[in-house]
Write a structure and sequence with these properties.
Length: 179
């Protein structure tokens, strides 16, 4: 009888642990409507920086592992083609340098080329600060897209490549936020 009670207690403990773990995971996952706080990361020259215009403009943040730097270029190209007013919209990149196998000096050289191509801000995250603060989860070999309103709320989120009809969806979301 005691062995049966012990088995029930162990089973209940396992279930309770799983529920607590799942609740913690869902609380940290990025979701539409979530309010984001600014964080201190680094600029392309490795100097301290925070997310520019968070709360002042509509933002498109592409958080890219350096090994997947081009994954969301089609989306970036579509947003650039819209030529949104700079006083209302900012698209920017943040490079996840922690998960990359490439040396930082090479990543920074590539960043300079992207800054020129897109005429944008690209920051760097050497310690996975943003995925932790904003709940991105595992970003290794991924590109995360987040559209943030002037209210600092997430309007769109995807961990992975935005393709085809999804690009049109993101553009429509940004169009709506521009009104």
């Amino acid at each position: 009888m005691t062995a049966l009670k012990n088995k029930k207690v162990v089973t209940l403990c396992v279930i309770a642990t799983a529920i607590v773990f799942a609740a913690g995971m869902s609380a940290s996952a990025t979701s539409v409507g979530q309010i984001l706080q600014n964080v201190q990361i680094k600029d392309a020259a490795d100097k301290p920086a925070s997310i520019p215009d968070l709360g002042n403009k509509v933002l498109c943040v592409l958080y890219n592992d350096a090994d997947a730097a081009d994954m969301n270029d089609p989306l970036a190209d579509a947003l650039k083609a819209k030529d949104y007013p700079k006083e209302k919209f900012r698209a920017m990149g943040i490079v996840n340098m922690k998960d990359s196998k490439a040396p930082n000096f090479l990543i920074r050289k590539i960043i300079k080329g992207k800054i020129e191509k897109y005429n944008t801000t690209i920051l760097t995250d050497t310690d996975l600060i943003l995925p932790t603060a904003w709940g991105f989860g595992d970003c290794n070999n991924q590109s995360v897209c987040v559209i943030i309103g002037k209210d600092k709320a997430v309007k769109y989120y995807k961990n992975g490549g935005v393709r085809g009809a999804e690009i049109d969806q993101v553009v429509k979301i940004v169009d709506g936020l521009m009104k």
